[in-house]
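Hi L.,

You mentioned the student needs an example of a multi-chain input paired with its predicted structure. This one should do, with 483 residues in total across all chains.
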Amino acid sequence: MPLPDAERLCAALAESLRGELAADAALVGIHTGGVWVAERLHAALGLKTPLGRLDISFYRDDFNRSGLHARLKSSEIPFEVTDRAIVIVDDVLYTGRTIRAAMNEIFDYGRPSRIDLAVLVDRGGRELPIQPRWCAHAMSLAPEQNLQLEQGADGRLELRLAHA
Amino acid sequence: MRNPQLNAAGGLQHLLTIEGLPREILNEILDTAAPFTEVAEREVKKLPLLRGKSVFNLFFENSTRTRTTFEIAAKRLSADVINLNIGTSSASKGETLLDTVDNLCAMQADMFVVRHASSGAPFLIARHLAAMGYDHIHVINAGDGRHAHPTQGLLDMYTIRHYKRDFTRLSVAIVGDVLHSRVARSQIQALKTLGVPDLRVIGPKTLIPADAEGLGVRVFHDMRAGLKEVDVVMMLRLQNERMQGALLPSPQEFFKYYGLTADKLACARPDAIVMHPGPMNRGVEIDSAVADGPHAVILPQVTFGIAVRMAVMSMLAGG
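Structure written out for the whole complex:
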């Protein structure tokens, strides 16, 4: 199955957000792929609020089964969360559990006025009542298929499909 | 024989001592601790990792700081924390250590943080848990006799890495009562494992182990010579009870020869850091001008200690 070009999806996602965001809205990318996408959106939209980054490992619901993963990143939320409109940005939306964890983490920084979700690809297979407000590409994948965003040595983003 | 701290997969089951832990595990603990430092900056200083777990602080020996930082670490991970002040409870009524442990297991304990005046007590508990088949219960040594204080050693390593980055180019001096110090033992093991090439201990002959050089350290009895060009000065607490024996003439005389003053610190590198595990005896092992001066990183050590203990507890509980 041919996969769409990730850089073009980023550009399309930026266009769909343009004019839709409050002046002081903040983007929060989820490590690692979501941060890459959020960096592109942030630059394309010329947002003034600095970009936030979340590593949701501390909020995963499978910690008791799988423990912590190596190479944790620090979460950085360099703005006041309370009363702010926040857009969570991720590369691939699947079960929705990562987004649930991200929302829990954001609420530990304050009470945002609203949270929206922007994703590059919605691959279906939701296990929680979570839907993106913006999505550049929707497709349906089987559970054993694993869609990942990767960054090449030249910095270009690329989608890759693997079988678990 | 397998290291009793590691599970079959080579992960941490208990944290009992730094001795025998491979460099990869020490680095993994330090790497894991880094993102936990950021939690202290949040409005809600809590993570859900140990939600529903019960952590028992078993302190058979007095400690305020270590017990408090373990308690804060566990609470920031959302665990329920139960502090047992053993001096006033069952042990004084004659209950054995393992009977106490069995009772707490029957209360669904998930983790024991143990401090005991006898070297090896946390090992005894860990071996007992294994014999009883309680693989889900973890033990952290918070200081046993003269043997080990691994989380103190790890938070010291975190502090050094934070300020100095690369262990493999450092000169480090440990100063004071090395002989009786479980902190010094854990520090030496960690520094050797992490590849510090120049490790020195400084103190009077009566307070340095006779076999110190066998640990791979250089021994100095002259503090100025020992501090020459070091990057890191790690002071040890002089325990008051040592004064009663014949090991030391007086606190004043100890301060004269081995107290860290600005004058002696001038022998170290200009960017040297000064560490102390606390509680400090000002005017005995360290002068106030140094303890409160620009080289001291003693209070950051305390803050990092919470993150390091959160990391260790999370790694143990996550299996």
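You could point out the following to them. The mean pLDDT of chain A is 95. The first helix of chain A runs from residue 6 to 17.

Best wishes,
N.
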